[in-house]
Design a protein that fits this description.
mainly alpha, 9 helices, 0% strand, globular
Length: 208
């Protein structure tokens, strides 16, 4: 249900942006798809694809890019509104993203990891398989989010150049701060889920 709604919402958003900045939208899809490939090759180098069904990684990527994004948008908007009403418009601008990100995006991405484990518990045989699933969830979220940021930059550009804002976003969000972004955050969350699953000799409170 959430994947289907997320797919509709994301495709609708992409098509709306393509109607206004077609070159920017196309450039964003190309550069962020290429950006994702080294992450996938790294996971393959770890041999986790042999440990785990490929469909699990596809579902993990889809949850991050579709399900979590679909649920995070209204949740973030609600937090931004609360920050403006309880604080001020300036407080919302300065701190809204810092408050919303950890409380909505990280929770929703981790919920996807837990859902996948609950669906196919017997397929997660090692902690690394859960960590890699978390990385895929985060990567899906990161790629879709960055495509949106890139096209928003093209929409806001004061010139007719639609591609340069995309490349600037790639530099800032992809390399200056992106290598330790959502994929790494969710991999760490996946490690926490793995500790809960596999350290059964520990008391429940310690595992939690």
């Amino acid at each position: 249900f959430f994947l289907a709604n997320g797919l509709y919402a994301v495709v609708h958003l992409f098509m709306a942006n393509y109607a206004v900045v077609p070159r920017g939208m196309a450039a964003a899809l190309v550069v962020w798809t290429l950006y994702a490939l080294p992450f996938l090759l790294f996971l393959r180098h770890l041999d986790v694809f042999e440990q785990q069904s490929r469909s699990a990684f596809v579902l993990a990527f889809a949850w991050g890019g579709l399900g979590a994004v679909y649920l995070a948008i209204p949740a973030n908007d609600a937090i931004f509104s609360l920050a403006a009403k309880l604080g001020s418009p300036e407080f919302r601008t300065d701190w809204g993203a810092a408050i919303a990100g950890p409380t909505t995006e990280e929770f929703l991405k981790t919920a996807g990891i837990v859902l996948l484990v609950l669906v196919a518990r017997t397929q997660f045989l090692t902690p690394l398989s859960v960590v890699a699933t978390g990385a895929m969830v985060g990567l899906g979220f990161q790629i879709v989010e960055n495509v949106v940021y890139s096209t928003n930059a093209s929409l806001s550009a004061i010139t007719d150049d639609q591609v340069s804002p995309v490349m600037s976003t790639l530099l800032v969000r992809g390399f200056l701060c992106g290598l330790w972004s959502h994929a790494v955050y969710s991999a760490i969350a996946g490690f926490g889920v793995a500790q809960f699953l596999f350290r059964r000799h520990q008391p429940l409170a310690v595992r939690t």
